[in-house]
Amino acid sequence: MNKKEQFDICTWIRSDLIREGLRKKSLLAVMKQAEIVHNGYGSVEDKLRALVCLRHRAKTKQEKKYMRRIVTYYQAALRQIGMEGKSRSSGEQETGEIWMGRCGEYQFGVGGHYDYFTDIDLFYSFQEARQWAGQHLSDPWQVCRLEKWILRKENPACIMECFLRRVEDKLCVTHVYMDEEELGLKSIEEFDHLSRHPCKLPFSTGDLVKLDGPAFKTPVFGVFCDDLWDVQYYWMGRLLTEKEKKGLKKHEGRLYNGSSCTTEDLSYLHVDGFYQLCVMDWLRLASEEELSGEQKILAEMGRELRGLRGEDRVAVERFFEIFSWYFL
Fold first, then answer.
1. Which residues are 321's β-sheet partners?
2. pLDDT of residue 87
3. What's the DSSP call for residue 202?
4. Which of 85, 102, 122, 310 has its Cβ near the most Cβ atoms within 10 Å?
């Protein structure tokens, strides 16, 4: 079996329904497949192997150019992770390296962020930082954010940021962001910008859905909205947490109207606010039986919106009437 035949992009999509829907579509362009891998939930070593396979599939001059660029990027990332002690800058000046690490977990909600549960610690090598992180990352939804700094005589420089987490119980780096100019690399902005989904998501307005999987401490339930007006957009309406409600009451830019609901934009590859999580990995159908307590109201909202199918614009307008938490 040659390298072109070994790679299947569908194995990089973790949501069963979305993965099976993609299998029924025509083969995605090489660049679209590379975007999925680059943003996917897997180790940088596995990503590099997949990207090398895709590089061999490239046919056009543009595809070959871009694939060489991203493969070189990942090769450089692995070299940076493997360095210990002394390293050299592009100017051949002797330098030292320091790794800064902090562990936390995703705090899902309006203005999503990391909830850090360690202080920032300093290390002299990636291996030392990784060993420390392994003592704190006991669950797959926990993450360690590492920065690599080069200590020059004139001033320090942060050349790389990466994220460690457990994937299939293996602690690994899943995402890397490097200072391309500092390291003499060509930009991979074609893979980093906010990309739309490469195919239509297989959900309809009113469907009960959840963002769920190893990267989430608890599932996030909501009601799906497929907005076909002018351009394809996807939304999920969900309930606000008590913490979010208290925060919104103090919001200065928009006035909180007392609603218990909010919306999440699912129109792009990334889960809004979390660039290491992909919608196509974690968005799944949910059942009413999975809802508990106040979440049960989502079932009623979903049934109302499903009753409006065939009246797309009316359904979308009703969705935002139900789930908007602010007025300007």
1. none
2. 44
3. S
4. 102
Name the pTM for this structure. Answer: 0.87
Distance CA(305)–CA(227), nearest Å, equals 12
CA–CA separation, 190 and 238 (whole Å): 32
pLDDT attached to residue 91:
42
H or E stretch at 66: helix 61-82
Q: Name the nearest CA neighbour of 127 among 101, 103, 150.
A: 101
The residue type at 70: I
Give dist(CA 259, CA 325) in Å, integer: 5
State the average pLDDT for the chain.
Answer: 87
Sole residue written with tokens 């800064």:
100
Conformational region of residue 299, where left means phi above 0, alpha means psi within -120 to 50, and beta covers everything else:
alpha
Distance (Å, rounded) from C-alpha 75 to C-alpha 178? 12
Q: Distance between CA atoms of 306 and 87, rounded to whole angstroms?
A: 60
| Distance (Å, whole) CA 89 – CA 96 | 10
Contact 121, 100 (CB under 8 A): yes
Residue 258 region, left (φ>0) first, then alpha (ψ -120 to 50), else beta?
Answer: left
Taking residue 181's Cβ as centre, other Cβ atoms within 10 Å add up to 11
Contact 317, 305 (CB under 8 A): no
Please give the structure tokens belonging to residue 308: 């409006």
Q: Partners of 172 in the beta sheet?
A: 165
Residues of the chain with pLDDT under 70: 1-5, 83-95, 109-112, 192-193, 248-258, 325-328
User: In this predicted structure, what is the pLDDT of residue 1?
Assistant: 40
Structure tokens at 37: 């891998």
Look up residue 326 and give its two tokens: 């602010």
- The pairing of strands 220-227 and 121-123 is unpaired
Dist. CA 216–CA 179, nearest whole Å:
29
